[in-house]
Write a sequence for this structure.
C-alpha cells in the first residue's frame, strides 16, 4: 500500500492577519484545492467591521457550515469538501503545502470525518506544521511532534521553566 503524507505549513501572521482581516482566498501553488477560503464581500475587512454591519450574517457563518459570506464567499462546508477532494486526489509520497489556517482546519475535519461544526473548535497556530498521513482512503493526524525546546542542546533554562508542568520533575 502506498502512503500519502501531507505537511500543511501555516506561515507567520502577516500585517492583515495581525489586524484580524479576512483573507482573499490565497492561492497555494501546486495545490490549487488547498487555496484559502473565499470570503466574498468580507475579504479585507475585520470581523468587527463585518459584524457591525451585519451581525446576523456573522452569527450564521459561525454556526451554520453551509452559510457562505455574501458576494461570492465560500461556505465552511464547501471549503471542507474542496479540501477533501484535494486530499483524495494526492498521489503517493510526501507533499508540502503552505496554507491558511482555515485550510488546516478543513483538512483535519475532512480527514478525521468530523462534523462541519468542529471546524470552529480547532485552533491552528501560525508558523506551525500539521501532518496528515493517508493510506487506502484512511487518514491519520500526527500530533505531539517533539518540542525543539526539549532537545538536549536547547537554550531552555530548567530552573525558570519549573512549575509550568504540574507533574514532578524527572530526576
Amino acid at each position: 500500500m502506498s502512503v500519502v503524507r501531507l505537511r500543511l505549513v501555516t506561515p507567520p501572521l502577516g500585517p492583515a492577519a495581525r489586524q484580524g482581516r479576512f483573507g482573499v482566498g490565497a492561492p497555494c501553488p501546486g495545490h490549487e484545492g488547498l487555496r484559502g477560503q473565499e470570503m466574498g464581500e468580507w475579504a479585507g475587512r475585520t470581523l468587527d467591521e463585518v459584524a457591525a454591519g451585519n451581525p446576523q450574517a456573522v452569527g450564521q457563518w459561525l454556526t451554520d457550515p453551509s452559510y457562505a459570506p455574501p458576494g461570492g464567499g465560500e461556505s465552511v462546508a464547501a471549503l471542507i469538501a474542496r479540501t477533501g477532494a484535494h486530499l483524495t486526489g494526492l498521489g503517493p509520497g510526501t507533499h508540502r503545502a503552505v496554507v491558511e489556517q482555515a485550510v488546516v482546519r478543513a483538512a483535519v475535519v475532512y480527514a478525521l470525518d468530523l462534523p462541519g461544526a468542529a471546524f470552529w473548535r480547532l485552533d491552528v497556530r501560525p508558523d506551525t506544521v500539521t501532518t496528515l498521513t493517508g493510506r487506502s482512503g484512511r487518514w491519520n493526524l500526527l500530533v505531539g511532534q517533539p518540542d525543539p525546546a526539549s532537545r538536549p542542546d536547547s537554550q531552555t533554562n530548567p530552573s525558570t521553566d519549573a512549575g509550568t508542568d504540574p507533574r514532578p520533575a524527572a530526576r
About this structure: The chain has six helices and four strands. Residues 156-171 have pLDDT under 50 and may be disordered. The two ends are 43 Å apart (CA to CA). The CA atoms of residues 76 and 87 lie 16 Å apart.
